């Protein structure tokens, strides 16, 4: 009876993870992953990812471990590995993006220094080890549980937490409104939102991190770096 109950609980957990991942699998599908990978290979990092990556590299990444949460095709951890980071873990709720990130790692010759996991980080967090550098690039703004997600990421940050969130402007809020209208029309449950910087600061501070920088990355995005105090 006990063994059967354990199996049932495990099956329930798997089903719950699949249900939470389904909207992201639909939104971030193989076609979109392939398009982003082509763009990265031909044009390099997006402007917001470059601002964040340049900040991290300026402070030094040699020998660092990297945890890239919702990392998509993995552009940031690919760049950090090439800049001297020792290892990386990439986690994403889209299996297509995990496959694209792994393909790019192999193409760049650092596949043996990266491991990938597919799923919702909130569910996976208990089994994820801390890292020197943790990344949340355009992830919090599409998570209904962004405070919990940020807290779990902060807990696993040894040195620096890098985050990209939308800027809180009238233009950005208007664009987000249009995006959410489009998502509702197609029946997708994902919703975008502005993440208040002061609230993110509060969550980070609760877990021993203080904000070092908040750099504008074009009209829509803000790249934020938090440091471990002490």
Write the layout of secondary structure elements.
Blueprint: H1 2-27, H2 30-43, H3 47-58, E1 65-69, H4 75-82, E2 87-92, H5 95-108, E3 114-118, H6 121-124, E4 131-137, H7 146-155, E5 157-166, H8 170-185, H9 197-206, E6 209-217, E7 221-228
Helix pairs in contact: 2-5, 3-4, 7-9
Question: Please, could you describe this protein's structure?
Answer:
Strand 6 (209-217) and strand 7 form a beta hairpin. The protein is globular. The longest helix has 26 residues, at 2-27. The chain has a seven-stranded mixed sheet, with helices on both faces. 50% of the residues lie in helices and 22% in strands. The protein starts with a helix and ends with a strand. The model has no long low-confidence stretch (mean pLDDT 91). Helix 2 (30-43) packs parallel to helix 5 and helix 7 runs parallel beside helix 9 (197-206). The protein is of the alpha/beta class and 230 residues long. The protein has nine helices and seven strands; from the N terminus they run αααβαβαβαβαβααββ. It has one domain (2-228): 3-Layer(aba) Sandwich (Rossmann fold).
């Amino acid at each position: 009876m006990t063994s059967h109950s354990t199996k049932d609980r495990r099956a329930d957990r798997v089903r719950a993870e699949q249900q939470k991942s389904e909207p992201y699998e639909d939104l971030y599908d193989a076609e979109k992953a392939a398009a982003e990978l082509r763009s990265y290979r031909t044009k390099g990092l997006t402007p917001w990812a470059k601002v964040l990556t340049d900040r991290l590299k300026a402070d030094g990444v040699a020998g660092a471990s990297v945890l890239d949460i919702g990392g998509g095709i993995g552009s940031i951890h690919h760049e950090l590995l090439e800049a001297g980071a020792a290892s990386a873990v990439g986690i994403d709720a889209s299996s297509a993006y995990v496959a694209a990130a792994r393909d790019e790692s192999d193409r760049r010759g650092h596949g043996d220094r990266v491991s990938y996991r597919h799923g919702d980080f909130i569910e996976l967090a208990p089994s994820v080890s801390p890292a020197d550098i943790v990344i949340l690039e355009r992830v919090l703004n599409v998570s209904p549980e962004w405070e919990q997600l940020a807290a779990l990421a902060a807990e696993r940050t040894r040195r620096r937490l890098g985050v990209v969130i939308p800027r809180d402007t009238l233009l950005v809020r208007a664009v987000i409104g249009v995006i959410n209208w489009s998502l509702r029309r197609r029946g997708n449950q994902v919703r975008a939102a502005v993440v208040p910087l002061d609230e993110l600061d509060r969550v980070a501070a609760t877990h021993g991190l203080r904000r070092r920088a908040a750099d504008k990355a074009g009209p829509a995005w803000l790249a934020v770096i938090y440091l471990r105090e002490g």
